[in-house]
Amino acid sequence: MKLNSFKAKLLWLFISVLSLSLFSIIYSLFVFSKSSNIEEVKTKVVQSQTLVKSLENDLNLFFSDGYKVVDFHKSGKSNYLLRIDSSEAKLALHLKAIVASEILDSEEALRQVDNIESNLEEFLDLKSSILSLYKERGFKDYGLEGELRAVIKEVEKRIGPEFLSSVLMLRRHEKDFFLRKSKKYLKKFNRVIEQLIAQSSNNIVLVKQLKLYQKHFKEIVDLEESIGFTSNDGVKSELIINQENIQKDLNSIAEALFLESNEYGKSSIRFTVLFFVLQLLIGIIISLKFANRISKSTSEIRDSMLVVSEGSFPEKMEVISHDEIGQIKEYFNRLVERLKEAVNFARALGEGDLEKEYNPEFSEDVIAVSIVELQRQLNLANKEQQIINWTNQGLAEFNAMIQNDALDFEQLGDSILSFVIEYLKANQGAIYLSEDEGEIDKKNVRLRRLSTYAYDKKKFVEDHIQIGQGLAGQCAKEGLPINLKDVPEGYIHLTSGLGDAPPSQVYITPLIEQDQVFGVFEIAGFDQFEKYQIDFIEKLTEIIANVLSSKKMAIFTNSLLTETREKAEIMMQQEEELKQTNEEIQATREDLERQSEELKRENQDLKAKLRKYEA
Description:
Blueprint: H1 2-64, H2 70-75, H3 79-100, H4 107-137, H5 143-158, H6 164-180, H7 184-199, H8 204-227, H9 234-293, H10 299-309, H11 324-350, H12 366-401, H13 409-424, E1 428-434, E2 446-453, E3 464-466, H14 470-478, E4 482-484, E5 494-496, E6 499-501, E7 505-513, E8 516-525, H15 531-614
Antiparallel strand pairs: 1-2, 1-8, 2-3, 4-7, 5-6, 7-8
């Protein structure tokens, strides 16, 4: 009966320890799940920060050049606005995902999310307002500027040559305002045009055209002032402040998530150690309780238990007999060994040694299984965390690298390719871009090599690839990634200190911007790419496509602006030459009139002399 009672108590002890172990595992899984959710939200926040920066860059491009695009004034659409709308949509989706995750549960964090959503709505209103102002303002033949040009053409047709210099002065003040955005040129403009109106008062039609010209110019100046002469005033200033507020709240949320993630990690380690200590204490307390009920003959066991109760481990007891007491001694010795192993293993885990191996002698124990399972879960969590940190660090370093505005298009491509190859520890890579500005599947469109890294020159006898030609051309045609693990013989060779060898894997993925393929990214290496590395490549190619597309558009726009300036300078020079020619003609006409008067006088003198002789 006593034996059965003793077994029941031991069973109860075993169940208690097992329950605590299972509870510890469940809690660790909960912490791991929570930490993973936090990291996912952190990733969304980092991506949102990148999108806000992209919005700022695209808006600046639109303010400087985008509103001058004809498509914008015809249909209200342009590539600049499509990119802005795309970034807005992605940012809204990220915010919804952040809110849906329910990770942000503090009042301050929720308030910041509400602020971001409110600021995003305000951004949409401000964007709509400034687009309406730009559309009303117009450019060249559209909007108010188009009406202004039409009026000045009528004025130039009706104006007399004596007022041509005044008209040229008006045009000069007009251009000075458009270039320098200062209202002092409006005053100069008004002063000249008022004088011209006064001088032309007898020409009612001309006066009417001049006043209409003055009115349109004043309206354009007012619109420019509403938009903002600089980024510190007008709707432009409101947009910049709005974006700064969004970025500020995102930074605060990212910092809060970072602190919360660290706290969860520390809490997990503290909780694990606490549970194992608790298991140890429960075992000691119950063991002491049993020892007090055993006869005085078990004093050796009692002394050993006393040592354990003081927080130490006793010397191994000598087992002489195999009776109940001997069995108890033997079992107690085994328990101490297991506890030692468990405590040492738990201490190693608490100190961060996640690679420690459990004693194979106790590997089948329930505690051992629980601890080893916990170790496995901690290792998985650690690896996941390392992958997330690696990905976020790579995205952050890449975003910092592409902020260098001093790089030209080819240098930017080389920098992007070098970064990806070196960060992934790959060996080779290339970037191809479409030669055409339109869709890549148009007839006769070719891919032009923009950048390469560590390729053998024999690989590029031709710098262009037809769509559908080879793996890169096929990737561009289909718009889908190609993951080549069995590389064909002779496709490419990688060079190392040991010589040339074929790569283990080639990964080719399209560069897609606004649902259109406009290039291909190719990377190869001796080692197989892990799934997280391929996911990282896909994330980067989205950013690469956006960056290269924006850079290409900026270069194209700058070339158009340069050509326009050169043409304007030629026209101004021609105007000056025309003015000089008109002045010379005027001087010649005055000289002819003077000679005519002299001839008339001489004629009259001759007639007078003839009449005198006849008389």
